[in-house]
Amino acid sequence: MEGMEYFYELYEALPRCGPGNNESTRQAYNFIPVLPEHPLVLDIGCGPGVQTLELARISGGRIIALDNHKPFLDGLMKRARAEGVAHQITTMNISMHDMDFEDKRFDLIWSEGALYFMGFQNGLRRCHQLLKNNGCLAVTELVLLDSDPPLPVMEYLKNEYPAIMDIRSNIELIENEKFSVISHFSLDKPAWLESYYLPMEGELARLAKKYEGNEIASVAFEGMRTEIDMYKRYGDFYGYEFFVMQKIGF
Ligand SMILES: C[S@@+](CC[C@H](N)C(=O)[O-])C[C@H]1O[C@@H](n2cnc3c(N)ncnc32)[C@H](O)[C@@H]1O
């Protein structure tokens, strides 16, 4: 896609690459019923790894943090070393499409804002294979929060995420893929605005100056500004749902 380098430059300057924060990571983690003392965790699409670091702190486990963009992983390990949790984290610079771990390897699989790159249903199936019996999966997924959103929202989402569904339909899908939903909750506005869009607005202003007159960069940045404006206007109608689930069909 044209202009990808500008997206990467933007995202590499941000603390995280999608909505979320340590509070929601902890909230989801606290729903997990049982885990070994040192669980083996897979974090799919970890990005800069804010949640990876939090999982290392709260789980005391070993974490494989996987992403196809190496600079994110390098930044994650730098922060992990600074925080003294590097010995718990192994990064893998591969695509989630190419995961070839043996089946039933993981106690817990985590994916904030990334499983949809495999298609949500495919992602659930792959995680089901990789989880131990009774293992748990926690993901955030973009959902419709309102059954009758205004037309501009539907027009926008039709382009951005045509597969979007409401919460109930997502739960049906999850249950059909042999998971039981332990709990689910919507990310709150600060998880979008303070943790994600506020830093992004700052970086967009900086990059707009840096790339003044560059048509491709300005189209890329304009798309991000539209995304922010849409959420500020219509964030009651769509959002990220954190689904915490347990593998039940073996
Ligand atoms: C929306 S970001 C979320 C990152 C992180 N989980 C967070 O919440 O900040 C999606 C992440 O998925 C990664 N990604 C996209 N496609 C991927 C693929 N095919 N395999 C592995 N990672 C992928 C991107 O590089 C990015 O880091």
- Top-tier CATH class of the domain at 18-150 and 161-188 and 239-247: Alpha Beta
What is the mean pLDDT? 97
CATH fold node name of the domain at 18-150 and 161-188 and 239-247: Rossmann fold
User: What's the number of extended β-strand segments?
Assistant: 8
Radius of gyration: 18 Å
Helix and strand sequence: HHEHEHEEHEHEHEHHE
Structural class: alpha/beta
Which residues sit in consecutive blocks of at least 5 with pLDDT less than 50?
Answer: none
Instruction: Estimate percent helicity.
Output: 40-55%
Please identify which CATH superfamily of the domain at 18-150 and 161-188 and 239-247 we are dealing with: Vaccinia Virus protein VP39
What do you see in this structure?
By secondary structure, the chain is α/β, with parallel strands linked by helices. It has helices at residues 4-12, 22-29, 50-59, 70-83, 120-130, 151-160, 167-176, 189-210, 215-234, and strands at residues 40-44, 62-66, 89-92, 106-112, 131-144, 165-166, 179-186, 238-247. Strands 1, 2, 3, 4, 5, 6, 7 and 8 form an 8-stranded mixed beta sheet that branches. Helix 8 (189-210) packs antiparallel against helix 9 (215-234). The longest helix has 22 residues, at 189-210. The N and C termini lie far apart (40 Å). Bound molecules: S-adenosylmethionine.
Write the layout of secondary structure elements.
Blueprint: H1 4-12, H2 22-29, E1 40-44, H3 50-59, E2 62-66, H4 70-83, E3 89-92, E4 106-112, H5 120-130, E5 131-144, H6 151-160, E6 165-166, H7 167-176, E7 179-186, H8 189-210, H9 215-234, E8 238-247
Parallel strand pairs: 1-2, 1-4, 2-3, 4-5, 5-6
Antiparallel strand pairs: 5-8, 7-8
Helix pairs in contact: 2-3, 8-9
The structure holds S-adenosylmethionine.
The site of S-adenosylmethionine has 21 residues, from helix 3.
